[in-house]
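Chapter summary example.
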Amino acid sequence: MNRSLSRELVFKLLYELEVQKENQIEQVDLYIENNDIQDKRVIDYIKEIVNGVKENKEKIESLISKNLKKDWSLDRISKVNLAILKLAIYEIEYMDLPYKVGINEAVELAKKYGDDGSKQFVNGVLASVVKENSEK
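The structure predicted for these 136 residues follows.
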């Protein structure tokens, strides 16, 4: 399974966790089992992302919040877009994924799963996060 497909699986799980907010460890194992994911590399990748997003939740959400337009808050972002942003930011910030790849992959997910404005919204927030971090 290629990385884009693995990323899509992780996105779906992150979205599920955003919506359900239940026992995440149990949810991850159930998700892997229900999707018949056998590849150890994919399972490790999924668990790394989910655990990393959970462990760095405050910093990731802070990065998103700081890069929203005025009068916007995390509560106003759709769960789909929020899951995409968290995934992309985690990969760019903590897994050293080149930001161009991270943004491109996030935009592709937004096109596929988001609403009409998701692509531009996700691209704008991530571009702003990258710009802010490059100025440090």
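To summarize the output: The CA atoms of residues 19 and 79 lie 7 Å apart.
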